[in-house]
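If you are new to this repository, start here. Below is one unmodified record pulled from the training split, so you can see the exact layout before writing a loader.
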Amino acid sequence: SYMFYSGNWDWFIEKYGDKITTSNITQALSMFNTSSITKIPFALNFSSSCITVSGLFNSCDKLEEIPELNFIENLEIPINYSAMFQNCQSIKEIPTLKYFHPSDMNSMFMGCSNLRYPPKFEDINFKRLATQNTAGRSLFHTCYSLREYPQIILDNWYSEKWTSYLYPIFNNMAYCCYSLDEIKGANPVTGAISSA
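And here is the target side for that same chain:
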C-alpha cells in the first residue's frame, strides 16, 4: 500500500523502472496515488489474496500509459476497484481487466476526461456487489471523451437481477459523458437498469 504514493519515488521509477519486477502484490491501496510519472514501465502482478486496488492510480494526472495488470483467477476473493483510475486525465486507453470480480467499483474511472473507450473486461463476476447497493456509483462520471459504454457490465449486472435498489447501483455512472450517444439498458444519470 502507498508504495510509490505522492511522487516520492517517481525519480526511481524513471531511472530504474525497466529493472523493476513485481510478483504477488497483496495490497495496492493508493500505490501510485498523485504520482507525476507519465508511464509505469513494468507489469503489476497481483497475488490471489489481493483484496484492494482502490486508488491505485488515483490523481496520476500525467499518466499516459497504464501497465499490464495481471490478476490471478480467484473468484472467492473479490477486489475493491474503487477510484482505481480516478482523475487520470491523460490516459486514453486502459488494458484488458481480466478476472474482474469487484466488491466495489465506485468512481473507478471518474474524471478520466481523455479516456475514449473503456477497457475490455473478461471473466466478470458481480455476485459480491449484491451486498453493496451503491458499488458502481459514478463509474465513468466526467469521462467527457468516452465514446462507448461497456455493455458487458450492464449485461452481467442485469443477469444477476439486482436491479431494484432504492439508490441505484450505477447512480451517475455516465454523468457528463458528453461524447456518448446512448447506453443500452440504463439511464446514465439515475443508474436505473433495465433489460436491453
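Two things worth knowing about this chain: The radius of gyration is 16 Å. The mean pLDDT is 82.
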